[in-house]
Amino acid sequence: MKYTMKAGLTALAAGLLALSSAQAMVDGDTIVLGSAISLTGKYSSNGVDTQNGYDFAVKTINDAGGVTVDGKQYKLAVKYYDDESTPARTAQLLERVINQDGVKYILGPYSSATTIAAAPVTEKYQVPMIEAEGASRALFNKGYKYIFAVLSTSEQYLASAIGLAAEIAEKNGKNPSDLKVAMVFENDAFSLDVRAGVVEDMEKYGMKAVIDDKMPADLSDISATLTKVKALKPDVLVISGHNKGAVTAARQIAELQVDVPIIAMTHCEGAKIVEQFGKDAEGYLCPTQWAETLSYTDDTFGSAADFDKNFKAAYPDYQTVPYQTAQAAAAVLVWKDAFERANSFDTDKVRDAIAATDMMTFYGGIKFSEAGNNVAKPMVLRQVQDGQYNVVAPSKWASHPVEWPRSTD
């Protein structure tokens, strides 16, 4: 059993395991959150980014005085287990966290696939889960009452790239319906939902897909698709395959010298495409849940720029803060807010407080629909320009104009 204990957790008192289902685990002056997260396996790099966001938020909140419930101050801590990027393992470990460890406040895992596996477990035991990394719409059409997601849903990720392509076409005297689109997606819940959003927007503009391929299960080779891209010369190439798929795509696009005016791809920052591929990453359009240039702010983390600066000071290996890290921190902030508004550790009261969340954070607005998804925050689109990620769409958030066509010269 692989697991990591953070924030100074010690052996838990045996009596805590006998707590009623309504009273979640509070160890002395510490509120214990639990998470099964991908620290190994194909999602491990994003899993570590997520864990770092959780840990940074816990430390920041604790250093600022912690969480106040019924006039008493409490610290936060997180008990982690490694789900090895395997959904079945996620579900198994959450059963352990809830039933054996007595933890009744859950932070979500990394990825839609593992979150889809987690949701029935938290629902079964009526334990609230605030999650930051499961964006698939499949999580929010099942009638779940105990899952709450701070992030925008996945159909929005690359749809904005289609809208931007249409806008560029019109500015250049071209009909958007004449644009040809090539698509390559991982065969998982998240990426297929990203694809659905792309297809919906393509239909709106009358665009045609000339390639619609799936990545192999190991995400290690898409050269067959890229060879077709070179031959068919689409106007837009959209790609989604988490970190590993992004690395594979960026590497093979450079190796095969694929030249497409617009390339939009998820997970650019997490995959560190700028650090790994330098000028070959120039011009990529990268959807993001958050950017340090946005004008969001809160009393705990300060502005988006403050969060970016302070996180990099705590974790100096990061050149760019992935949005996965920012949204993980935001999830912990929602827990703090909910505990304080509930003024209780009763899981039903805390769950109702989470459902009533309506707050502004450094990450953006957070307000949950009845289904549990966040309806208060848009996605934005960044472009790699001179090695920097600059917001280029929507126009109200843009810090820089889009560079088109993409060029690495």
Cα-atom radius of gyration? 21 Å
The overall pLDDT average reads 93
So how many helices? 12
CATH architecture field of the largest domain:
3-Layer(aba) Sandwich
Helix content: 25-40%
Task: Give a written overview of the molecule.
36% of the residues lie in helices and 21% in strands. With 409 residues, the chain is of the alpha/beta class. It has 2 domains: 3-154 and 292-367, Rossmann fold; 158-265, Rossmann fold (3-Layer(aba) Sandwich), CATH 3.40.50. Helix 2 (87-99) packs parallel to helix 3 (112-124) and helix 11 (323-342) packs across helix 12. The radius of gyration is 21 Å and the shape is globular. Mean pLDDT is 93; it is low at 1-23.
Short description:
The chain is an alpha/beta fold and 409 residues long. The protein contains 12 helices and 19 strands.
